[in-house]
Structures are given as structure tokens and as C-alpha cells.
Write a structure and sequence with these properties.
By secondary structure, the chain is mostly beta strands. 0% of the residues lie in helices and 52% in strands.
Length: 115
């Protein structure tokens, strides 16, 4: 199994995840699952990508999570994996990223509690 490396940055309340040299599921779509820290699916989160070099750099496909917390991101004709995944859900911040056994990218977000 290939080792995956994740890099995180936080700007203006938006979670950005850099997926470096990842080997993702084959097919026309990449599934990105968004859940909270208790494992509950988050509906209505906006998921946007930045594509890898082969397909040209620039913004990639975006999708909104369904009621199961899944966003279906269309793959490029080069079948390149997304280089960046940006998740935006008001009131939440990124907590962690993992791959599930069924090749979903799972991003965990946490509710921000106002002080």
C-alpha cells in the first residue's frame, strides 16, 4: 500500500488539504466524505479541488456534500488525483484526513465553539 502524506494550511476560515503524490481510486469520480468528530456525516459542505500538473494547474471540480456527507468530484480526462481539496462549511474547521478502505478521502471537521 502506498504511503500518503497530508499537508494542512488554514486561511480565512477555510480548510485546505494538500494531497501529495496520492494514489486514489480509479473511475470517473473521487468520493470525498466529510464528517464531524463524532463520525456524523456533514451535509451541505462545499468541497473544491485544485488539480495536479498533468491536467494543467488551476481550479478543478467542486461539489456539495449530500445528506450522507459525500461529495462526488469529477476526475479529469487524465484521471489525475486532486492536488488540493478545500472544504468550506461555516462554523467548522478541519480536524483530520484519512483514507477509508473503499478509497474515499475522509475529512473530519470540528464545530468551532465561539468564545
Amino acid at each position: 500500500m502506498k504511503r500518503h502524506e497530508f499537508y494542512f494550511a488554514r486561511t480565512a476560515g477555510v480548510c485546505i488539504v494538500l494531497l501529495a503524490m496520492s494514489c486514489l481510486a480509479a473511475g470517473c469520480h473521487q468520493i470525498v466524505h466529510i464528517e464531524d468528530t463524532q463520525g456524523q456525516a456533514i451535509a451541505g459542505a462545499q468541497v473544491t479541488t485544485q488539480m495536479a500538473e498533468g491536467s494543467g494547474s488551476g481550479p478543478g471540480p467542486s461539489a456539495t456534500t449530500n445528506r450522507f456527507g459525500d461529495a462526488m468530484l469529477k476526475r479529469t480526462s487524465y484521471n489525475d488525483p486532486p492536488l488540493w481539496i478545500i472544504v468550506h462549511k461555516p462554523g467548522y474547521r478541519r480536524r483530520g484526513v484519512a483514507y477509508s478502505p473503499d478509497n474515499k478521502i475522509v475529512i473530519q471537521i470540528q464545530r468551532i465553539i465561539p468564545k
